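Priority: medium. Attachment 1 of 2:
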């Protein structure tokens, strides 16, 4: 049995998630009600039989460290398993490969045959051992997990071209324009000795797998692609985050990611909360309701995280509501993402008005989503427009007309 060490890169700030990643690293952002984004990668490891795992963290690691703990939910606290969180000692990680290079002594200590490099911020279910076995079968030095994407989205990914045997011939990092369709998933299998050789020999301070190591190895080593045909999503924007969450509540014939498959469970650290409570006059259509939530109003096509309370006559539509948010009587929330511990006052209306892009960040918010940060008290009867950004603990008492127009940012 060959030994595999998995390294999960979880240090990115996730700037496109803006308010949601203001005080937490992107992989620890809540997702699908009770989960965090990183739960999918960790669960893939556990289900694939990979139990030697290190998580490379950097930006605001506390929430991620607290969530993972000893790794018990993923069966990583056994005698024959191990999860280690690796943070920078003196200098910050400058690139994906530089993060691994700065932990080179840890890699040597683990004495693994293969290194599996993973990203902690994608939503998918994948058996990594199938990829590793194909890597061995090809006698490859490096295997890159790939997914087929539309060329118009290529500028988000490392794009590659391969021959009929999937040996990689060309690799371009985030091209502005290309006809290539195979995109790197940020999943790599390296022979350990080969990885260590390149980490030591390349001098770039911002050493990156996509920019530096993979292009160089294509000309010097045997590098193959491994095609993954399943569901795989990067939820790194507000639009993708909301759409992917809401996609989980589609009808069985339309749903793309089966969260209820007993053979491939998604594990997480669950909060000890009571069962969901539904009031006598509640109306619920297409929703994910998490433990501890109470619904006495109307919830439609929305995801409620643990501890959310929707009071009588309140309405929540097309929204993702994170932990312990309260939607008071008569309030209406439409097409919103609301972060933890926020209170929406009585008869307030969120997500109303003209669809005017956010004035400060039109590239982040233009489709009509309104994003509300943590610990905000939204006054009774307040009206908040579309594409609004309210940062954590924003003071709304100064708005005497009780209105925030579409496209505004309040910090």
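Attachment 2 of 2:
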């Amino acid at each position: 049995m060959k030994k595999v060490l998995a390294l999960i890169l979880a240090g990115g700030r996730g700037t496109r998630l803006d308010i949601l990643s203001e005080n937490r690293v992107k992989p620890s952002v809540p997702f699908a009600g009770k989960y965090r984004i990183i739960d999918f990668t960790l669960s893939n490891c556990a289900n694939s039989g990979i139990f030697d795992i290190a998580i490379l963290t950097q930006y605001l690691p506390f929430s991620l460290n607290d969530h993972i703990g000893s790794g018990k939910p993923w069966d990583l606290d056994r005698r024959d398993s191990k999860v280690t969180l690796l943070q920078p000692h003196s200098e910050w990680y400058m690139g994906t490969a530089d993060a691994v290079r700065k932990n080179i002594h840890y890699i040597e200590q683990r004495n693994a045959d293969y290194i599996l490099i993973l990203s902690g911020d994608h939503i998918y279910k994948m058996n990594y051992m199938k990829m590793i076995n194909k890597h061995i079968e090809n006698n490859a030095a490096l295997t890159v997990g790939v997914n087929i994407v539309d060329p118009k989205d290529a500028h988000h990914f490392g794009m590659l071209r391969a021959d009929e045997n999937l040996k990689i011939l060309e690799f371009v990092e985030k091209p502005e324009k290309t006809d290539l369709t195979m995109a790197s998933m940020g999943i790599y299998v390296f022979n350990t000795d080969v990885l260590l050789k390149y980490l030591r020999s390349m001098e770039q301070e911002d050493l990156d797998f996509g920019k530096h190591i993979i292009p160089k190895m294509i000309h010097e080593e045997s590098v193959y692609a491994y095609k993954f045909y399943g569901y795989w999503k990067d939820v790194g924007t507000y639009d993708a985050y909301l759409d992917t969450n809401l996609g989980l509540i589609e009808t069985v014939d339309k749903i793309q990611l089966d969260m209820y498959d007993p053979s491939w469970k998604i594990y997480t650290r669950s909060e000890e909360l009571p069962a969901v409570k539904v009031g006598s006059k509640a109306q619920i259509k297409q929703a994910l309701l998490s433990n501890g939530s109470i619904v006495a109003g109307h919830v439609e096509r929305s995801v409620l995280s643990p501890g959310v309370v929707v009071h009588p006559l309140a309405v929540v539509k097309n929204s993702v509501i994170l932990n312990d948010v309260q939607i008071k009587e008569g309030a209406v929330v439409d097409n919103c993402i609301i972060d933890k511990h926020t209170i929406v006052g009585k008869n307030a209306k969120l997500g109303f008005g003209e669809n005017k892009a956010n004035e400060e960040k039109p590239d982040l918010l233009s489709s009509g989503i309104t994003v509300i940060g943590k610990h905000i008290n939204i006054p009774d009867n307040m009206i908040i427009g579309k594409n609004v950004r309210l940062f954590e603990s924003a003071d709304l008492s100064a708005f005497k007309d009780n209105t925030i127009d579409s496209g505004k940012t309040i910090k």
